[in-house]
Hints:
By secondary structure, the protein is an alpha/beta fold.
Amino acid sequence: MQTPSGHAVDSTTATRLVVLASGGGSNLAALLAAHDAPAFGGRVVGLVTDKPGAGALDLARDAGVASVVVAPADFEDRAAWDRGIADAVAVFRPDLVVLAGFMRILAPGFLDRFPGRVVNTHPALLPSFPGAHAVRDALAHGVTITGCTVHVVDAGVDTGPILAQAAVPVLADDDVASLHERIKVAERALLVETVGRIAREGLTVEDGRATIG
Length: 213
């Protein structure tokens, strides 16, 4: 596990956001573009990734946000990695953990460390098409409308309480790449809007339901 790098963690009273990402970081970029506005209410104080070469690391560095790589190859087994990534996130003292293109399932022990404080974005209108191939599955089923969902993470796969959704029409000539690209545009806007609301108004999770404000 690499040690955190980058600038000092922000010490303002804004809601502290820690982002988990595995790829290029387009959702992270959207959050970084929003978090300098005082009205947003939150600030990204750390990035944690499982991929040493993730493009999100460059975005974090350029924004002066501390980052840490928790690569599975650096741990003796999955249980050790689960503990390692939870410890890495805890260093940043998050008020909210945001999964933004993070491609690994988090263990129950991780969720227990941050109860009701982990949210994810998914490229489908849950509960339809959970899992890693949501866009492909939507096309295969011939739906005419799909979209994206921001939800609270629980121990299941994309089964947590839904916070917000946005619809995206499926065009006649869509393939996985073209449809996913349009979903990503809606996803970024929805994530920023929802995380901002949580930062300003708070999040309550009780009896399988989630409420902002």
